[in-house]
Amino acid sequence: MPTLFRFVITLCILAALGYGAMLALVILVEPNTAEMSERVPADRLNPQTR
Q1: How far is residue 12's CA from residue 8's CA, in Å, rounded to a whole number?
Q2: What residue ranges are annotated as transmembrane (predicted)?
């Protein structure tokens, strides 16, 4: 029984660390927002059917 208890506690600690890492990413990291454009050649918009 102590081995199972230790295993469950280890899983709980790993889950808490993962949750803490995700929470830290949400709070501390600010995303960069920028407008993005890319030219598309006309032949790719209207491909010729053969």
Answers
A1: 6
A2: 6-29
Decide: pTM greater than 0.70: no
CA neighbours within 13 Å on the CB side: how many for 47?
3
Backbone angles phi, psi at 37, to 5 degrees: -140, 150
Tens digits of per-residue pLDDT, 1-50? Answer: 789 999 999 999 999 999 999 999 999 999 889 999 999 887 778 777 65
Cα–Cα distance measured from residue 29 to residue 21, given in angstroms and rounded to the nearest whole number: 11
How far is the C-alpha of 3 from the C-alpha of 50, rounded, in Å? 70
Structure tokens at 29: 């990291």
Domain chopping of the chain, boundaries: 1-25
